[in-house]
């Protein structure tokens, strides 16, 4: 998910940076003061999730949690993911500072799109539906990000088919696990803190 | 309140379980032993990057050689000329790592002048220490490579250990997040006061 420095072409980097800057402004405006602790908690969760290796298949991929952030924060997920990615780049050398814009966009946008759709479907009354919807959100957010990563590489002149193949084969197992993590987290929160879903 | 503290405890426990885990980042380590450039490609976990593509940019800046790592993540390359070689480990999914190897002319095995120079130096040295030695330079070179191999291995392990993510990194990251969010909350509370 984290594209390294020196892989992408300048137009892709600039486009990613501008899109992320715009997204950040929208995100910061959408977060109400009383939501800041929630954002902080989920930023931490996202920051740590990248260290959880999914030991299925040949892949060396990790959890992302962009779907969960999309469900719980909506547009605000953009800010949370950006802060966590800055820290991952500085402390873990994941990705890089120049690719920050592209990486934030690639990870945040699918999570927010599927998360906002899921927000309308998740409710305390329909527990089964909520579980399925949040599983799909986790699953699709990862695949969506994988698709955007492959697209960024293709626009920088890499072989689209090869990149897409590699990314999807590495991320389908992660997407399945991520689906269950997201669904479990949502079901748990519906039980103990349902007011977190009211927006 | 009970529920919240339960959640915090669970998250802290989860944090400890994530520590020996893997992460998605590639690294490359290489050194020149006088004959060959030997390298190792690995993930931040130290796990070898098998069958990965390694590009070697020649010192002339034009030619690029392509190698593949073996099933242990290792590769070997014999440099022909002096200069700085750029080694790039490239995974097709957007991960990349690079390193440089600088080779001086007198260190190349094909450089007769360099060998002679080293030889003269060695003979002087031997005379000065009045030691008896029947080794040729080539034999000595081979012996040194053999003797230095364990040290090379140790340096490699040290470099790999350095690139691993430590508990320290994780905790400082969490500290930053709470700090940034704290400042944000403070600023927005000031705004709300006005």
β content of chain B, as a range? Answer: 15-25%
Q: Class of chain A in CATH?
A: Mainly Alpha
Q: Please trace the helix and strand order of chain A, writing H or E for each element.
A: HHHHHHH
- The helix/strand class of chain A is mainly alpha
**Sheet of most strands of chain A:** none
* Strand/helix succession of chain B: HEEEEEEEHHH
The rounded Rg of chain A comes to: 16 Å
Share in β-strands of chain A: under 5%
If you consult CATH, what is the topology of chain A? Arp2/3 complex 21 kDa subunit ARPC3
Separation of the first and last Cα atoms of chain B: 31 Å
Strand neighbour order, sheet with most strands of chain B? 4-3-6-7
Shape of chain B: elongated
Multimer state: heterodimer
Task: Give the overall average pLDDT of chain A.
Answer: 87
Task: Tally the helices of chain A.
Answer: 7
Q: How would you describe this structure to a colleague?
A:
The complex is a heterodimer of chains A (199) and B (194). By secondary structure, chain A is mainly α. Chain A is 72% helix and 0% strand. Chain A has one domain: Orthogonal Bundle (Arp2/3 complex 21 kDa subunit ARPC3), CATH 1.10.1760.20. In chain A, 57% of the residues are buried. With 194 residues, chain B is of the alpha+beta class. Chain B has one domain: Macroglobulin (MG2) domain (Immunoglobulin-like, Sandwich). In chain B, 45% of the residues lie in helices and 24% in strands. Chain B is built from 4 helices and 7 strands. Chain B has helices at 2-17, 112-128, 137-163, 167-193; strands at 26-32, 37-43, 53-57, 64-68, 74-77, 83-91, 95-103. In chain B, the strands form 2 sheets. Chain B has a 4-stranded antiparallel sheet, with no helix packed on it. In chain B, strands 1-2-5 form a 3-stranded antiparallel sheet, covered by helices on one side. In chain B, a hairpin with a 6-residue loop joins strand 3 and strand 4. The longest helix of chain B is centred in the C-terminal third of the chain and has 27 residues, at 137-163. The radius of gyration of chain B is 26 Å and the shape is elongated. Mean pLDDT of chain B is 76; it is low at 15-23. Classes of the chains: A mainly alpha (199), B alpha+beta (194). The interface between A and B is large, with 46 and 44 residues.
């Amino acid at each position: 998910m984290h594209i390294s420095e020196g892989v992408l072409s300048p137009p892709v980097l600039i486009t990613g940076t501008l899109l992320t800057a715009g997204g950040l402004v929208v995100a910061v405006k959408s977060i109400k003061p009383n939501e800041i602790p929630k954002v902080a908690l989920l930023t931490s969760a996202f920051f740590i999730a990248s260290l959880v290796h999914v030991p299925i298949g040949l892949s060396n991929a990790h959890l992302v949690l962009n779907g969960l952030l999309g469900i719980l924060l909506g547009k605000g997920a953009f800010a949370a993911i950006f802060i966590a990615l800055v820290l991952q780049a500085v402390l873990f050398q994941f990705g890089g500072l120049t690719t920050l814009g592209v990486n934030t966009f690639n990870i945040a946008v699918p999570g927010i799109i599927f998360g906002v759709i899921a927000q309308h479907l998740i409710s305390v009354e329909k527990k089964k539906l909520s579980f399925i919807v949040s599983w799909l959100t986790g699953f699709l957010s990862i695949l969506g990000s994988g698709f955007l990563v492959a697209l960024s590489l293709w626009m920088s002149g890499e072989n689209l088919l090869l990149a897409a193949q590699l990314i999807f084969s590495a991320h389908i197992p992660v997407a399945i696990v991520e689906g269950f993590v997201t669904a479990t987290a949502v079901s748990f929160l519906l039980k103990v803190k349902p007011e977190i879903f009211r927006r | 309140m009970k529920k919240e503290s339960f959640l915090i405890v669970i998250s802290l426990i989860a944090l400890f379980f994530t520590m020996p885990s893997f992460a998605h980042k590639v690294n490359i380590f290489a050194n020149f032993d006088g004959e060959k450039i030997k390298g190792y490609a690995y993930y931040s976990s130290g796990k070898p990057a098998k069958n990965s593509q390694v590009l070697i940019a020649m010192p002339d800046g034009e030619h690029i050689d392509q190698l593949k790592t073996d099933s242990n993540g290792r590769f070997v390359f014999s440099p022909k000329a002096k200069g700085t070689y750029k080694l790039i480990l490239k995974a097709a999914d957007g991960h990349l790592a690079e390193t440089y190897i600088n080779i001086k002319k007198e260190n190349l095995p094909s450089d007769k002048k360099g060998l002679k120079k080293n030889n003269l130096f060695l003979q002087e040295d031997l005379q000065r220490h009045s030691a008896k030695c029947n080794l040729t330079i080539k034999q000595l070179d081979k012996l040194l490579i053999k003797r230095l191999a364990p040290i090379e291995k140790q340096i490699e392990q040290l470099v790999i250990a350095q690139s691993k993510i430590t508990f320290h990194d994780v905790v400082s990251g969490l500290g930053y997040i709470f700090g940034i969010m704290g400042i944000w909350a403070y600023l927005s509370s000031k705004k709300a006061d006005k």
